[in-house]
């Protein structure tokens, strides 16, 4: 996952310059994602079965896509998301199901030559907890490009302080990757997926749509295949729709929308299914009216 941050600082300025700054900000908002100077090679989700008291290890490969030496810093953070669109990155260990403090990165910062790759090793030490661990524990390792010459950089020389002008325009483009680390404790942990906030709608083409939230109220994360089986009032199957989703962690939620096509107006029954694999299927049945 990548995040692009733009920082625009506006001081006292004449009206003409203020308009130019506003125009620049508008152009940046339409420009699309910034080109990453450092990319992560390999999966952005790392899943492992963990055993209390034991560790497992692996590597993260970073690649410098630019013509200049680049510096990267890797940090750990807790990670959560919800169906309303919120994504949170908290301090390591904030969540009761965080494994951030189990992770050791070697090295945590490094420089990479132009068009070359470098490897960061990681070790995940699963604690032998007196209170038995169960289910899934997770966090993210964030990969951040450190601008050359900045206070936290070892590449280039920091610029000497200059008198602050009346107009300061600072554009800071930084691309982050967040690599998810999920540790499943054996086959332990309860599994439970629930459905909520069903919303039957009609789009501007006249297609019927069904939007709903799905929540993990158990202890174990799942990669889900979501399905909707739509039945008419007569009991006849009208259609079946399916979508594969990524990991849904305990206590998190997401939103799904299905295009049901140009079905006639009327009353229906929707059977919602969430297949977590391994024979675990969670279901809910709901009436719909269009």
Estimated radius of gyration: 24 Å
Largest pleated sheet: 7 strands, mixed
Number of helices: 1
CATH topology name of the largest domain, in short, is Immunoglobulin-like
The computed structural class is: mainly beta
Tertiary shape = globular
Return the average pLDDT rounded to an integer.
Answer: 86
As a percent range, the share of helical residues equals under 10%
Tell me the CATH superfamily of the largest domain.
Answer: Immunoglobulins
CATH class of the largest domain: Mainly Beta
Q: What percentage of the residues does DSSP assign to strands (E)?
A: over 45%
Going by CATH, the architecture of the largest domain would be Sandwich
Explained architecture:
This protein folds into 2 domains: 2-185, Immunoglobulin-like, CATH 2.60.40; 193-289, Immunoglobulin-like (Sandwich), CATH 2.60.40.10. It is mainly beta and 290 residues long. The chain is built from 1 helix and 18 strands. It has one helix spanning 15-30; strands at 2-5, 38-41, 45-50, 55-64, 70-81, 87-90, 103-106, 109-112, 117-125, 135-146, 174-185, 193-202, 208-216, 222-232, 237-248, 253-261, 267-277, 280-289. A hairpin with a 2-residue loop joins strand 17 and strand 18. The protein starts with a strand and ends with a strand.
